[in-house]
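Support case: zinc ion complex. Customer-provided input:
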Amino acid sequence: MAKDKAKPLCKWKKKEIAENLGDLAEIVRAPKYICQKCTRVAHKKKWLCNPEKLM
Ligand SMILES: [Zn+2]
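Agent response - structure generated as follows:
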């Protein structure tokens, strides 16, 4: 996956998750935001569809 392509984790399909495990590990490492809708976490807002800052 291209680094500048910011598709929210919320929209990733199973296949995309499987193909991008390396990227995913980076995205969810030391998370700063949580998606209020999907309860996923990420270190940048752009990876979530409804981001809320974690404490
Ligand atoms: Zn979401």
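The CA atoms of residues 1 and 20 lie 7 Å apart.

Case will auto-close in a few days if no follow-up is received.
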